[in-house]
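Example record

The entry below shows one chain as it appears in the dataset: sequence first, then structure tokens.
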Amino acid sequence: MSAPHSSIVHVLLGTAGRHPDRAALREKVAGRWRDITWREYAGEVRRVARGLLRLGLRPGDAACIVGANSPEWLIADLAVMALGAVPAPLYPNTTPAGAAYIAGHCGARVLLADSALQLERLRASGPLQAVEAVQLKGQPEAAGVHSWAALRALGDQVAESELDACLAALRPERLATLIYTSGTTGPPKGAMLTHRNLVFTAAAGARMLGWGDEEVHLSYLPLSHIAEQILSLHAAVTTGGTVCFAESIEALGENLREVRPTLFLGVPRVWEKIQARIFSAWPKMPPLRRRIADWARGVGEEACHRREAGARLPRTYALADRLVFAGVRQKLGLDRARLCLSSTAPIARGTVEFFASLGILIHEAYGMTECTGPATLSTPDDPRIGSTGRALPATEVRIAPDGEVCMRGGHVFAGYFQDPAATREALDAEGWLHSGDVGELDADGRLHITDRKKDIIITAGGKNVAPQNIEALLKGIPGIAHACVVGDRRRHLTALLTLDRESVATAAGACGSAARSPEALAADPVFRRHVEHALEAINAELARFETIKRFEILADEFTVDGGLLTPTLKLRRKAVVERYADRIEAMYGEGPQHGPA
């Protein structure tokens, strides 16, 4: 057998050997949480790998995996890699056409899906019609589909020595997985991540975060995305922590309170929704309790500023924590969380400051699929709001002359599958990965992201504007879910604002509006004046050429299913501009403007 860390699968086997009886995975079955030990986890990976070998999957072949987060998903992914084959995960909401493109591009030989509905939907046409199919959950309805139990039984027909030969052939430089980028434009590209990438990044990230074998993580973001894979799969396998699986995104709040994770990753939209729920509950408090809560938030805000300055916390902080903060964390299920993270997109400073005022510190991480997830991490010993922290150990970050963020190190990918032109565009001759993001490094080496290069707006006056910073401020207006700043080759900036449907009543009540539906609120002049006043305050913080002159309020949120957000909830800017072209043109007609001319 090859060296212990020649692949992420060998890391798993080593961890199982050290902690055979500790809980590796935990899922809720029939209302009760059930544990899978590290010994069972590793044993299932080996058994399923032999089953896939029996199905005809061979080293170098590809297999598509799609479904909700579950033990079977992780086991299948690792089993494919154990053979020297390559998993190519699909997002659960991938369209049949999108799945067919990826399956055809990577030459998938096997499809593993978690339900009969998924299998029927994705095998309707294209390359997935002819592949071997496995259903991860439940009993298959279609002919020729293998159940999870049947796949495991097939594994019993294959000798362990056959799998050992595959494991012995794994090498650090070998292709481990293909992560297809969701992309805001164009077809997805398959980022090639090697076993060295996975092993290096998981170990470096865990070391930087101080992630030990006692950590508990709640898995709920799509496992087809590298951020969730690094946490739920590779870092957990590296450290020996426990991964719990949320039942659904709708059950996330309940599952958080049940699991009480020690580490929690939330994309900005998750944190914003939690903030909106807390905000909506605030006016309903009894007067005395609310006065205490307001006082505690003031203490929390002061503590936040002192942390950043490296000063001691206020003397009253312990009392505020006991009276207010501890209760908030307990109600959210974050009372054991020593580390709360935000990643995949910029988070509004106001949201971070709001949670900091309640004693919940959110640390930003920055990275991309092409560097195996994290490139920089903000850590509890160095809190800086607005910073994504410092580079991973043994890696480098630099800013190119045009402001582009570049990374180099063991986390940088091997290139794009079957796309040498795109690979040359992303990777230069010196091994630097060009991110496409614009940022700055402060004097202490912390990274601050300002925008995407391709998203930079150049106004008719020749001014360069970073829209994401402005959009983050606009999303801080109570009741607003999303913002899209427009103004490329225009004389000034405008914005499309969408309403957060869950906080309509709260937002209406806060400004004295009688509206009770998103449609009514979007058209209500009282709410519009409320947004205008908030916009005036935002414009006062911006340079003259950055100010928003006009805005439109849309009743609906931008959604993934609607094609206006990527699966990781990033704005598909081009699609938004095309969808609302008429509303945008109307904003550039005659009428009153906001902010300085």
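Notes for this example: The longest strand covers residues 433-441. The chain has 21 helices and 25 strands.
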